[in-house]
Specification:
Layout lengths: L2 H6 L7 H9 L26 E3 L10 E4 L1 E11 L2 E9 L7 E5 L2 H4 L5 E11 L5 E5 L3 E6 L7 E9 L8 E5 L13 E11 L11 H9 L2 E5 L9 E6 L4 E6 L10 E5 L2 E5 L4 E12 L3 E7 L8 E6 L5 E5 L3
Antiparallel strand pairs: 1-3, 2-5, 3-4, 4-11, 5-10, 6-9, 6-11, 7-8, 7-10, 12-20, 13-14, 13-19, 14-18, 15-20, 16-17, 16-19, 17-18
Length: 323
Amino acid sequence: MTKARDLADLGNKTSLDEINDAYDAGALSNRNLIINGNFAVTQRADYSSSTSVASGAYSVDRWKANDPFNLQRFTGQVIDGIRTNYVKVSYNGTQTMGFMQLIEDKNYEVLRGQTITISAYVRTNQPLFGFRLYDGGQNYGPRFVADGNWHRATWTLTWSPSSPSYFQMMFDTYQGSFPTIGSGDYMDIAMVQVELGKVATPFEHRSYGEELAKCQRYYYAFQVLNGLTGQNSFLAAAYSANTLYGVIDYPVQMRSNPSVLSGGTWHARNGNNNSFTLNLDFQKSGRNNGTVAQGSVGSSSTSDAFWVESQGSTGYLAFDAEL
């Protein structure tokens, strides 16, 4: 049986043994429509300590806050015999919550009219937490076991909206209204998966490079703050004595023309190792070819080529094409 036929036949498999046989044969690769489901990629911050995330903000790559919370990421943890990462979503006071991923229409279209299964490992002390799927209408999933132990939660449904506006896979308390939860309530989440079929297959661990490339379609951190290491320099050429132009290429094609997020202090260094404070401006931001950066060095220079770099940890630059 070919890989394509195995994938097409996944919805007809009803036993975990059948699923595992296909999985072991390598037939079910790239089946997880969730990106960064093991929270390996985190371009905005490392979240090694509990960090406040505002409503509507992204945190670990591709994951968005529907309501505010504190987030902490734990790496190299063993869950159900598998070494992976997980995030803890928690609260300082009484509030609502929502931790979600939006799936792009080019990816979720394959799910329409199909039986799909959502799965994740969850540990919580709050029985109101559970799955929810929002597609312009509401789909409420099962609530999680709230005994403070890890459980693999699964939800199988037929997803057949006529014209979905979104595919938002959520962990939250919403079931027609948002009940409030208290200080000390938390939810630990690991190995999140959305796939075709009636049975939750083993979590698909993609390589870090594959996961990073998928994330960079939506967000590319060229130079970042919060103690993370990123690329921090690019080449520029002199247009005039005081003006430079340079091109920042993207590692992958972005989902759409991104917005540019920048700030801090940048310097331009010429071939004579003279440094000039640089005021950056971005003239063009395309999805394919990168962004053109224009800079004024503020003083005359006779050099044709410059090395543009952030000054210490204060300069940052990112490109955002999130949904």
